[in-house]
Write a structure and sequence with these properties.
Serine Threonine Protein Phosphatase 5, Tetratricopeptide repeat, 2 domains, two-stranded antiparallel sheet
Length: about 270
């Protein structure tokens, strides 16, 4: 009975030892532990959680301790924790960090290298078993590697313009305006010439030479002004009449134009009709 109890105690101790992440072996060099009290407390809490299979909570405690004080023991325990949780990528990452600080040959070093090799092999095998992802096919093409064809611009269709409606000759308000202005000019010019003639008659009848001269000067001025306005009115009247008479059927046809000039010999009209 006593022997059975002894073997039971030994078994319990062995199980507890195997469940701890960083239990030292007799022939292994020690791993660097934190010296600060807070970091040590997180390490102890993490080890207790590791012993009951609380991998996620244990990892949080180890990481909290590593933030307070970096020590190789945290990377080793995190590698052990993530390996037990099945997160091989994180486990390998922490194991490799641990190996940078822990380089003394021994059983622990060999076991860490074996853990890394086994997990990496399993990850590679899992990657080979995954179905290959097909490359995305470019929309509108029959091949994944065929570049998309440049878009062809649609042919530009000529736009048929509606024929411009021809203006009737009696709707040519510009022509009528020219003719009307010309009539007014002729009338004003004629009135001025008549007034000039009347002034000349008065000058001829007056006995005072000074008054006669003044009347003649006014008559000459009004005569000249009447001539200019009258000739200009005639030019406008002629231009308007011609424009109405030869109203163009082509919208691009040249329109009539005129100009008034004065020379030493009198007033003249020139233009294009």
């Amino acid at each position: 009975m006593h022997a059975l109890l002894c073997w039971t105690r030994i078994g319990i101790i062995a199980v507890l030892a195997l469940s701890m992440p960083s239990v030292a072996r007799a022939d292994d060099p020690p791993i660097a532990h934190p010296t600060s009290k807070e970091a040590q407390e997180h390490l102890a809490k993490g080890s207790k959680l590791y012993g009951v299979g609380e991998w996620a909570k244990a990892a949080e405690e180890y990481k909290a301790g590593a933030l307070i004080e970096e020590a190789a023991i945290f990377d080793y325990d995190l590698g052990q924790t993530y390996r037990q949780a099945g997160d091989y990528k994180l486990a390998i990452w922490h194991y490799k960090r641990f190996l940078k600080a822990y380089t003394t040959p021994g059983p622990r070093l060999d076991s860490v290298n074996k853990f890394i090799a086994d997990m990496q092999a399993e990850l590679d095998q899992k990657a080979r078993k995954e179905e290959p992802t097909e490359p995305a096919t470019v929309p509108g093409t029959g091949s994944a590697t065929e570049p998309p064809k440049p878009a062809t611009a649609p042919a530009v269709q000529p736009i048929a313009l509606a024929p411009r409606e021809q203006e009737k000759w009696y709707e040519d308000w510009f022509g009528w305006g020219l003719a009307g202005t010309g009539v007014v000019g002729v009338a004003v010019g004629g009135a001025l010439l008549l007034d000039a003639s009347s002034l000349n008659d008065q000058a001829n009848r007056t006995a005072s030479q000074q008054e006669a001269k003044s009347l003649h000067d006014k008559a000459d001025s009004r005569s000249l002004l009447g001539t200019v306005i009258g000739v200009g009115g005639l030019g406008l009247l002629a231009t308007g009449a011609i424009k109405l008479a030869i109203h163009p059927t082509d919208p691009n046809a040249t329109t009539a134009s005129w100009n008034l000039g004065v020379s030493s010999r009198g007033v003249f009209v020139f233009g294009r009709f």
